Amino acid sequence: MMGRRKEWLIGLSPLPVVWAAVMLGISVLLAIWLLLQPWLISGLPLILRLPLIILGVWAVGGGLALPLHYSGVPGWWLMAGQLPWYPVVLVLFTLMLLMRSWMM
């Protein structure tokens, strides 16, 4: 029991607050961008649109839920924003949207 980190015992995120704020800001900007320009995803064929929607839900939803990771949230909810996968998904989704906007 001594080898466990305190963050895992009380449910707090090991992500620094500054990085969480940056990722929250990026997620908010992506959500607003998609509200203003929904054709970035809706113009794709269904076979390409579904994986992008799933990736977007994880990226934007996980970013907007990051403040919850600093409270005692139990279970699978913490996995949505765990390191190292969440920042990779956020960057990947952002790059995919940027490439799609430059193609149009």
Automatic annotation (TrEMBL):
Highest taxon in the source lineage: Bacteria
Transmembrane intervals: 17-36, 48-70, 76-98
Keyword Membrane on entry: yes
Keyword terms of this UniProt record: Membrane, Transmembrane, Transmembrane helix
Name listed for the protein in its UniProt record: Uncharacterized protein
